[in-house]
Amino acid sequence: MSFSKRMKQSREKQGMTLAELGRTIGKTEATVQRYESGNIKNLKNDTIENIANALNVNPAYLMGWIDDEPSNEDTIAAHLDGDDFTEEELAEIRKYANYVREQHRKMQGE
């Protein structure tokens, strides 16, 4: 699977819009859309890292160097003492985590 497909799949799994991802990584919605469509192919390493961080995935997964994406549900569950959450609840938790991360970046001046 290509970078663009993995990126889109990961973004949708996080419940993020193109605009939300763009704000998180400091790019426009149109630029993020071009990344996902494959129209921009030569991304800088720091851009790939920013995208991976925003989507809670390993940069190597986005690049196609590894096939296994760590399950966000497993990671979240490990931190929440095994509480059972629906997919919708997990999506809300991910959105909130991304919001907190975005606010932290703004405070750090990124």
Automatic annotation (TrEMBL):
List residues of the HTH cro/C1-type domain.
7-62
SMART domains in the cross-refs: HTH_XRE
One GO term in the molecular function aspect is: DNA binding
Instruction: Give the matching CDD domains.
Output: HTH_XRE (cd00093)
| A Pfam family this chain is assigned to | HTH_3
InterPro entries the record matches: Cro/C1-type_HTH (IPR001387), Lambda_DNA-bd_dom_sf (IPR010982)
* Top-rank lineage group of the source organism: Bacteria
Q: Any idea what this protein is called?
A: Helix-turn-helix transcriptional regulator
Species, as recorded = Staphylococcus equorum
